From TrEMBL:
It comes from Pseudooceanicola nitratireducens. InterPro entries: DoxX. The chain crosses the membrane at residues 14-32, 39-57, 77-98, 105-125, 148-167. GO terms for cellular component: membrane. The keyword Membrane applies. Its main location: membrane. Keywords: Membrane, Transmembrane, Transmembrane helix. It is a multi-pass membrane protein. The keyword Transmembrane helix applies. It comes from the Bacteria. This is Putative oxidoreductase. It is found in: Membrane.
Length: 187
């Protein structure tokens, strides 16, 4: 007896491509626009973040420092620069399908930190609509609803890799595949 879902299994290699396309269409512009707001002025803007970058990432520390980044330490600068670079680099890697599993895992970590900063640093936890609730028939909460979809899309890439049309596939042709047919034990 043949498996009636066998034709669907042949579509599995397209799932990472769909996940990367969805990420590119929805989240790439979001993260890159956010990263641009963190750039400092001039040619060294990638190493000298804007005041807004510090305020976005360390809202309470910036308030305590009188919104003067020079009153913060090297740790704050390093985190802000790394966060800004991550918003440029990780989404690009995901879209290209380059080091896909690692970059998608990095994006999941980034989203978790971003969500915690939104909730506790910016006070979103005090607004029920920001955190939201699952199983409440309203799919528009910023943190629980939207970011669950983001993380699920990225988790697909962590599990399945970049897919058939990815830089990983071109560069690492001998890498193990996550295609279900390839994972079957030999008979």
């Amino acid at each position: 007896m043949t498996d009636p879902t066998a034709p669907l299994a042949r579509l599995t290699p397209l799932l990472p491509l769909l996940a990367r396309f969805t990420f590119a269409a929805v989240l790439l512009p979001y993260f890159w626009a956010s990263a641009v707001t963190k750039l400092g002025s001039g040619i060294f803007g990638l190493l000298s973040p804007s005041v807004g970058a510090y305020a976005q990432i360390f809202p309470r520390a910036m308030e305590a420092a009188g919104y003067d980044p020079s009153n913060l330490g090297v740790f704050h600068w390093a985190v802000v620069v790394a966060g800004m670079w991550a918003e440029f680099i990780l989404p690009a890697l995901v879209v290209l399908g380059l080091l896909t599993r690692l970059s998608a895992l990095g994006m999941i970590g980034f989203i978790v930190v971003q969500s915690l900063t939104d909730l506790f640093g910016h006070g979103g936890i005090d607004h029920a609509g920001t955190l939201g609730a699952w199983f409440d028939k309203a799919p528009d909460a910023l943190i629980l609803d939207q970011r669950a979809f983001w993380i699920t899309t990225l988790a697909t890439l962590v599990v399945l890799g970049g897919g058939v049309l990815s830089a990983d596939r071109l560069l690492f042709r001998n890498a193990p595949s996550a295609h279900p047919a390839d994972l079957q034990p030999a008979r």
